[in-house]
């Protein structure tokens, strides 16, 4: 048997008979994760607020969903409902978390994390994979620009609070809470820290990270900010989640990113790929020096077997095409013929 076929067979054997829970299954990352888990042969329990809500219909249409996907009505704030979905599972992928600066909802992320770890301990699951964020890693004004940001770095909570970055503040507390409770309760925890996630939508609704791209195409903003941002494809984020779950030696945190762009580079790519849209050409801050990207490392996840990430241009292109196909972005009359995209 060829090596690739043997590896695939071994993976299928690992997944066969295993049941895993994905919290917030209808979300952007979670939907791709459910799709991948089903493809690999897992039985999946997805928690959603309402299994009959039409916004979760895409999950029921995934290959293998009829046979191996069950949706549970479970709010992260209601422990007993959450525990019912988790009991009997081999593992948990905790992806559910509000992406907002609403302080009340941010508290929900922390309470939900506590409930997931507690339920995991009671269910004696093999491993919990927690979807965190690069926002728990790099928000530190004292970070030396010559020092590479890696999994040992943590965001400064006071800095997050003083800059009113409540999302990063809550995500940092939620992740720290997860680590503390996992140690206390003997839960095997691994964390994925992705940068801003792009790529095609499986769900019908627009998520916060995709709005990051969409706003530069609708004319709703006339300038771009003097800022840098790291990007990663949603398929790669799902792949890393499964990789750290299936690899016994995986431990700690794993940064997940392809590259960083200044916003000027982002709008340049958008204008080149989609010249029909009113992409802004001016920065709102022309007085201060152009912000520089910090250095980051993905060595840890590559050492685990993640050989390469999908290129950022492909991430951006697929995001926009998906927005068009889903009807979120109008199709303007082209100013010039689109060339077929080739990403090498």
Task: Outline the fold blueprint.
Elements: H1 3-15, E1 19-23, H2 28-39, E2 43-48, H3 57-60, H4 65-68, E3 69-73, H5 79-86, E4 91-94, H6 103-123, E5 127-131, H7 157-162, H8 166-185, E6 189-194, E7 196-198, H9 208-214, E8 223-224, E9 228-233, H10 234-246, E10 252-256, E11 259-262, H11 263-273, E12 282-283, H12 299-303, H13 312-325
Parallel strand pairs: 1-2, 1-4, 2-3, 4-5, 5-6, 6-10, 7-9, 8-12
Antiparallel strand pairs: 9-11
Helix pairs in contact: 2-10, 5-6, 6-8
Task: Walk me through the structure.
The protein contains 13 helices and 12 strands. The two termini are 30 Å apart. The strands form 3 sheets. It has a 7-stranded parallel β-sheet, sandwiched between helices. The radius of gyration is 20 Å and the shape is globular. Helix 2 (28-39) crosses helix 10. Strand 4 (91-94), helix 6 (103-123) and strand 5 (127-131) form a beta-alpha-beta unit. The chain is an alpha/beta fold. The chain has helices at residues 3-15, 28-39, 57-60, 65-68, 79-86, 103-123, 157-162, 166-185, 208-214, 234-246, 263-273, 299-303, 312-325; strands at 19-23, 43-48, 69-73, 91-94, 127-131, 189-194, 196-198, 223-224, 228-233, 252-256, 259-262, 282-283. The longest helix is centred in the first third of the chain and has 21 residues, at 103-123. The protein has a domain at 3-198 and 233-257 and 294-307: 3-Layer(aba) Sandwich (Rossmann fold), CATH 3.40.50.
